[in-house]
Amino acid sequence: MSDAKIRRPRAETPKGFRDYFGAEVTTRKAMLDKITAVYHRYGFDPLETSAVETVESLGKFLPDVDRPNEGVFAWKEDDTDWLALRYDLTAPLARVAAQFRNDLPSPYRRYAMGPVWRNEKPGPGRFRQFYQCDADTVGAPSVAADAEICAMLADALEAAGIDRGDYVVKVNNRKVLNGVMEVAGLSGDDKEAERGIVLRAIDKIDRLGPEGVRALLGEGRRDESGDFTKGAGLNAEQANVVMGFTTAKRETGADTVARLRELVGSSSIGLEGVDELEQIAALLAAQGYGPDRIVIDPGVVRGLGYYTGPVYEAELTFEILDEKGRKRQFGSVAGGGRYDDLVKRFTGQSVPATGVSIGVDRLLAALHAKGRLTTDTTGPVIVTVMDRDRMADYMGMVGELRAAGIRAECYLGNPKNFGNQLKYADKRHSPIAIIQGGNEAAAGTVILKDLVLGAQIAQNATLEEWKDRPAQVEVPRADLVAAVRRMLDPN
Amino acid sequence: MSDAKIRRPRAETPKGFRDYFGAEVTTRKAMLDKITAVYHRYGFDPLETSAVETVESLGKFLPDVDRPNEGVFAWKEDDTDWLALRYDLTAPLARVAAQFRNDLPSPYRRYAMGPVWRNEKPGPGRFRQFYQCDADTVGAPSVAADAEICAMLADALEAAGIDRGDYVVKVNNRKVLNGVMEVAGLSGDDKEAERGIVLRAIDKIDRLGPEGVRALLGEGRRDESGDFTKGAGLNAEQANVVMGFTTAKRETGADTVARLRELVGSSSIGLEGVDELEQIAALLAAQGYGPDRIVIDPGVVRGLGYYTGPVYEAELTFEILDEKGRKRQFGSVAGGGRYDDLVKRFTGQSVPATGVSIGVDRLLAALHAKGRLTTDTTGPVIVTVMDRDRMADYMGMVGELRAAGIRAECYLGNPKNFGNQLKYADKRHSPIAIIQGGNEAAAGTVILKDLVLGAQIAQNATLEEWKDRPAQVEVPRADLVAAVRRMLDPN
Q: Which of A267, A421, B72, B255 is the most buried (most CB within 10 A)?
């Protein structure tokens, strides 16, 4: 092929994917390290599953579609099996819990963090690869396991930098909702579609408001764009029962529980749910987690169909400005609940499990909004190159600085234009430039240029406050490391 | 569908993939954290690219095959574009360097670590997803950049736990080899195939020995299985020149350089390569990296075709026993070199780059062989459940221990069989079991069972050495945390 025929590839990430640079990587890592430390203290062990799973193994949790490569990134292996990238960390856990059921401790507490992939239409701020950070307990039937996850979630948020008072973990129970549905005449296998619509409607109450939810419980709802969503077809009386559930929250947990007990009437599943909520509240109180951190809130239902008992969600309660400059609550950063049937798909045996997933990017955005991302973005000390024949001398300086634990590098671009070297130092947020030209070399000295101070002086027209601190010093070559240390930390 | 018709999915990782549990995750992370700290000190910034790239962008580096999903895991997006999982961290860097060339500092020093995927036939110990840990400098034409990578590699290995003396970084230069080929009459575009065979033959000298390499330089070689590999077709004189190169290493770097200078004769590319080797050695000496850590070794050529200048490889020099119990050198754990043409594919402009890739699993295996993996595998303190109606009390104890920074958990399985609780504690490597039955609760005490001591006593028939240390103590409930601390650290 002739050169002219070679088309150059585009240097682009695929649509919906992105790269993370510098502080984006280190701030996320620092946050996950803090969360990991909490998970560890709670007795959870790390698990890192492969990114690739068989579609068969992920299968049931996929959106309801015909082709296996809808919703997930999938490909055919050897013209027979389909493989796919994991789309969450829960489905792989269910597979691991089944595959290694004879070797793992039971209960099995594990945490996992890493990227997951969704084959969805990309949009602004919507990416097809993103991080999750999960903790789950498999094989623990007691609601003590759910209470523990809620407490751990509160601790993890505080460890990450969300102050007490700036978040609340809301707890509810699917069984209570099922009891309410029973009272509303929505039990029975033939009502599954209606129950699904009710569940999703309640899950949207923050966004749609009570009127929007009520419309979805009845005939349906037309949104601003004109699209019509079919409702559950409940009559007014049935809708009243369900709406009563969404507004059941009272001043105290005990009052909320009492109200829920009224609502579920004689439904045994409903009463079981209310009892479990009471137990969770008692267990949390015994560990000192009061309603300032964890509250019973019937408004939380979680959209996913597979939850079978307690569900929980962490909401950040402080306000931020949205893209239009309006104040709004930050909202949810984590959620989870009890799912007792995921492992059963593989083994036929029901395995009780409960767990939480933290939205890593959401939590990072929250910490950013609160000014709690304190990553050190200071760049390296730059040893400039005045004379390219003396590279060994400059590399020797860098070696000394590094051996002393100081982040440092030698300028390795074309050294001809000294201005470019200082521009590079600026782009790297370098605190100090080291300069040694022929005169300094002959005199056995080096010049240290304080770039932080230089930038401050440049911003400040009067030099008054800086005049007793020189922006540039010349020191004996032998004092290089000590002089750099003094300039990095003048106090 | 009736229940009987539902086939259960197999709970299995896809062939060639695996999961990492507990200490496997934490030891790798601890090692990478240490290496990262070195990279940081050298002024390198982290970069995390997306796992998914367009096949077009990866394209040129794929093995020579017709279908894009050979060698990589690839799938079709929207029936037009092919996407694929990255198979190394260098190809994505080349894409990033081209895509963000106007924003990134130049030179751009970056490190990256994470999984890569290879669609290869899985075999024993051969996985299709594995970790790499890379550092590269893009935009630095000077061999000072290569010298820096070699020094950083040495420091990274020591930081990870490989002692000085247990490794050596070998440096060579492709230009020297090209000069030798020129002398042997193998220059020119029509000799590219022969040069490739020579390159791969030299790369195998450790495995095949000089005779095997000589056979591959000539007519070819039949291996033990009877398979014939075609040779480069060199005559004896040509082969002598090439073989002279493989044995050019001398006692000192200066002597090796002198011998190489003889071998490349008047080849200008060869002389350039020898000069570069001399410069690298001088730069490293100026930073204190002598031949005990970094040596010039013409035996290192690196198999990859895209290297254009210095190449380097880190070898571990201690012996381990192979699967047949024979002693052998541990061998290579990292390698890299200068590749000046990878970014050019995208932009048309040549961008000088050099970098190294550490084989994370190989290095972990080496640290394991040297007994340098010191991960704490101690499990949590287990609060057992004697009376399930008092879960709140037990959770309260766990809460106190955790608040004091002690890893602890409550047994959350079915508490009926107390033996199962102790078996669980054993499986978790739990140091202490806390027990509070009705009597203790009434007396306001708890029992601490020292499981570490218990295991030691069980191994030791005579109790002499343990008799002054009780394996079980009863303490006031209020002293729980202090007593656990004492038992965890008796000194």
A: B72
Give the count of beta carbons closer than 10 Å to the beta carbon of residue B466: 15
The CATH class given to the A381-488 domain equals: alpha beta
Cβ proximity of B350 and B322 under 8 Å: no
Shortest distance, CA B46 to any CA of chain A (angstroms) = 5
Give percent above pLDDT 70 in chain B.
93
Predicted confidence at residue B53, as pLDDT, reads 95
Q: Tens digit of pLDDT for each residue in B197-221? A: 888 888 888 888 889 999 999 999 9
Indicate the residue of B98, B379, B399 with minimum beta-carbon distance to A287: B399
Cα–Cα distance measured from residue A378 to residue A406, given in angstroms and rounded to the nearest whole number: 11
pLDDT beneath 70: ranges in chain A? 1-6, 60-70, 79, 303-305, 375, 460-469
Query: Can you tell me the distance from the alpha carbon of B176 to that of B338, in angstroms, rounded to the nearest whole number?
Result: 13
> Which of A1, A19, A345 to mutate to test binding with chain B, by most B CBs within 10 Å of its CB?
A19
**Inter-chain CB proximity A407 and B18 less than 8 Å:** no
Using the beta-carbon criterion (under 8 Å), do A18 and B398 form an inter-chain contact?
A: no
pLDDT in tens, B331-384: 899 999 999 888 898 999 999 999 999 999 999 999 998 888 876 778 999 999
Question: Is the CB of A19 less than 8 angstroms away from the CB of B402?
Answer: no
| pLDDT of res. B5 | 52
φ/ψ region of B5 (left if φ > 0, alpha if ψ in -120 to 50, else beta) reads alpha
Please tell me whether the interface predicted TM-score (ipTM) of this complex is above 0.85.
Answer: yes
Among the partner residues A46, A142, A348, nearest to B391 by beta-carbon distance:
A142
Instruction: Render pLDDT for B45-55 as a digit per residue (tens, 0 to 9).
Output: 999 999 999 98
pLDDT-based confidence at residue B63 (cuts at 50, 70, 90): very low
List A residues 364-383 in contact with B (Cβ-Cβ < 8 A). 379-380
B9 touches chain A (CB under 8 A): yes
CATH number of B23-51+86-186+234-369: 3.30.930.10
**Mean pLDDT (chain A, rounded):** 89
Are the Cβ atoms of A17 and B52 closer than 8 angstroms? Answer: yes
Boundaries of every domain in chain A: 23-51+86-186+234-369, 190-230, 381-488
Asked if the Cβ–Cβ distance from A50 to B107 is below 8 Å, we say no
User: Could B19 and A288 be called an inter-chain contact, meaning their C-beta atoms sit closer than 8 Å?
Assistant: no
Name every chain A residue with its beta carbon within 8 A of the beta carbon of B352.
Answer: none
Beta strand extents in B86-156 (DSSP E only) = 108-117, 129-138
